[in-house]
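Recap from last week: sequence in, structure out.
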Amino acid sequence: MFINIYKEDLNFLSRNNASQSNQENNNKNSDTRNMEQAPVYKPERNQEIANNMTKEQVLNKLINTIDYFKTAKGSFEEYTQSGGQWVITYQLMLNGEESAGYSKVYNSVRAEKDHSTYFSKNKIWLLDEKAKTYNESDLVSKKLYGEPITIDKAIGETKVKKSSIYRDIPQIGFASHSLFPYELATKYLSDISKWEIEKQNEKLLNHNVIVVGGTLDKSKKAKIQSSTFKLWVDKDTGILIKYETYNDAGELINYLHTKELRINEKINKKTLSPNLKGFKQTH
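Predicted structure tokens:
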């Protein structure tokens, strides 16, 4: 009987040790996977919105886009008569103190890389792609982008003075023209009576957008040589996917056309740091 009990104890210990060994291996594998996954940030995916929006809701989203997404990857082409033609490629992660991102600017007229902007925590890097030089400096603003702003404040209708107030945004260069179109939104849409919602739901690059259009006042008309405009706004985030301005003859004058936009997909943090190999620092 003793022998049988001893054998059973040995079998139990053997099974227990094997179980512990398997558990340790599983833990090691899990730790390895966690280490491998650590550089990747993966937020929850957004749900496409199809509900009708009012003018006020459209403007409110345009001036508070930062509250409606966590990561963004994409590219767009922008042309202005005064500023030239550019293709901007970007990635952005909004994750508190770990927020980071970049935008890379390609000069379409000269067919060459122009410059890149990177930011991470309290640093910003400006890379001159032609001269192969870079400048590193502290971020001017270290706020975490503040609280949502009201339409009245954004369009400058305050009791003290008429001056627009914009939320603090990540220092991501030209990519902000699409991701954080606060200034354009207030300039074009501040007078609610001069624009209309033309289409509540339109599919564009697999996003559900709302299309608005209107007229520009004399001062803006002279400045950008345009009399009318159209904006295509992502209903989920308020991101400006597309805009166009036209002259009196209906000819296209200025535009921003997004080529790709991916929201709240996983992002590799390592890609958000600048590769300074071959660049010389300037002071």
